[in-house]
Write a structure and sequence with these properties.
alpha+beta; 10 helices; 4-stranded antiparallel sheet
């Protein structure tokens, strides 16, 4: 497993670690931190969740203790990445990466798959692991990205949220066309320009207030916007994909 973990680490990250002879445990924690950061860079919080789930689903009673520890470390590292991203961009934390839930999952994995190695109270142990992983996540996040990855523009969640609100409050068809991939919407929904315009106007006339609760960055200069729409008699949850084109967020014509 040591060779696998070493291969998973980016060279710029290893160069930042002030450990002359990192132990196998250090290498495992660094690999988990790097994996969490890379997953977020590639696919956002959803990508981290998939990586954590895939790791845990691959465990069995026959798994080595270090494999169990890696999956636990990956979950905790992802928790810190989510925290850093939420603080930096002003978004709510993802519930699955809040500490209480992550630590609960970690305890279940350790008690089930590595019961002989971990006995008694696990909270102090997990807190210590969390502190170490927070440092490694910070190093990984600050390390240079691989040269083959093009530099992405800074993600502007507030602009995507504003585009969502403007679109859902508009009853002007020309404005809605300018705020969306209109032709793609017509093709996807198998409708006409007039029918699509009339449908949106009818829907938007009933929207009294909009509260955006989350803007999730996605690959390909896209964002998933989640909001609560207040209607005359009720409220409803709405989730749309927006895509950044020429510096403007547009309602995507497809997923």
């Amino acid at each position: 497993m040591k060779m696998t973990l070493l291969a998973a680490l980016a060279l710029p990250f290893l160069a930042t670690v002030a450990v002359a002879q990192p132990s196998e445990d250090d290498i495992m924690l660094m690999a988990a931190a790097q994996k969490a950061v890379d997953s977020y860079r590639d696919s956002g919080v959803a990508g981290m969740g998939t990586a954590v789930d895939d790791c845990a689903s691959g465990l069995s009673r026959a798994s080595a203790a270090e494999d169990v520890e890696y999956c636990v470390a990956l979950n905790i590292a992802s928790m810190h990445v989510d925290d850093m991203a939420a603080n930096a961009q002003g978004f709510p934390r993802d519930n699955r990466f809040k500490q209480a839930f992550v630590f609960s999952q970690a305890e279940e994995l350790l008690k089930f798959f590595a019961p002989t190695k971990h006995q008694g109270q696990l909270t102090p142990y997990l807190q210590a692991r969390s502190a170490s992983l927070m440092n490694y996540v910070t190093m990984a996040a600050n390390s240079a990205q691989p040269a083959q990855q093009p530099q992405q523009p800074a993600f502007d969640g507030q602009a995507a949220a504003q585009a969502f609100s403007t679109f859902w409050q508009s009853t002007d068809c020309d404005e809605m066309r300018s705020l969306s991939q209109w032709d793609a919407l017509i093709a996807t929904l198998k409708t006409t320009d007039q029918q699509l315009c009339a449908t949106f106007v009818q829907m938007h006339q009933h929207v009294q207030d909009i509260k955006v609760s989350k803007v999730q960055p996605l690959p390909g200069n896209r964002a998933q916007v989640t909001a609560t729409l207040t209607l005359p008699q009720q409220s409803m949850q709405q989730q749309d994909i927006f895509v950044l084109e020429n510096g403007q967020w547009l309602l995507a014509g497809g997923n």
